[in-house]
Amino acid sequence: MTHQDSAKTIFERELVALIPHLRAFGRSLTGNASHGDDLAQDALAKALASRASYQPGTNMKAWTFMILRNVFYSEKRRSWRSCALDPEVAERTLVSVTNPTASLELDEMRRALDMLPPDQREALILVGAAGMSYEEVSEVTGAALGTIKSRVSRARDRLALIFAEGKITEDHQPAHAAMAAIFRRIDDYRTAPRAA
């Protein structure tokens, strides 16, 4: 086996080991298991295609998470071209879950997360749901390590306060459109001009 074959095998083995993490991160971003898995698959394909740009010895998890995150934001920017789901059709196709309050609890968490500033929400999802270290989130987002730690801490404190006070805002959005609305606001925040 040549050195190039060995490097390719190591790269592929490390990438395969990250699949569960990519799926979890994809699901946390989309709020949908199927869409999250599709997002992870797209990110894996892009990572394989971009193997030459990966620097061996660097943090592959952060590199692949950045790819997944970029794929997600690219999809959201293109989403305005797609048709919205008809609420009546969606209502007729809903499947019962074993815990009838699970969807209400998830919607309540979504609305509470929506009350956080976008930078805090993103940091909390990457650390809490995706299981990334603070260092990895810093690398993915480009923010300083101390900034990431501060964002996560403030996001957790603020969520606890929101739930303790029970002051979760109502947005009257149907569940199928709520996540898209959240990420449209995130995209708007990210593309807003920054003060010098």
The span between the termini is: 53 Å
The H-and-E topology, N to C, reads as HHHHHHHHHH
DSSP helix fraction = over 70%
The CATH architecture name of the largest domain reads: Orthogonal Bundle
Describe the structure.
The chain has helices at residues 3-17, 19-30, 33-49, 60-78, 87-92, 102-114, 118-129, 134-141, 145-165, 175-191. The chain has 196 residues and is mostly helical. The protein folds into 2 domains: 1-82, RNA polymerase sigma factor, region 2, helix turn helix motif (Rna Polymerase Sigma Factor, Chain: A, Orthogonal Bundle); 100-196, Winged helix-like DNA-binding domain superfamily/Winged helix DNA-binding domain (Arc Repressor Mutant, subunit A), CATH 1.10.10.10. Helix 2 (19-30) runs parallel beside helix 4 (60-78) and helix 3 packs across helix 4. The N and C termini lie far apart (53 Å).
Give the secondary structure arrangement, pairings included.
Elements: H1 3-17, H2 19-30, H3 33-49, H4 60-78, H5 87-92, H6 102-114, H7 118-129, H8 134-141, H9 145-165, H10 175-191
Pfam family, one: PhyR_sigma2
Domain PhyR sigma2: 17-68
Family: Belongs to the sigma-70 factor family. ECF subfamily.
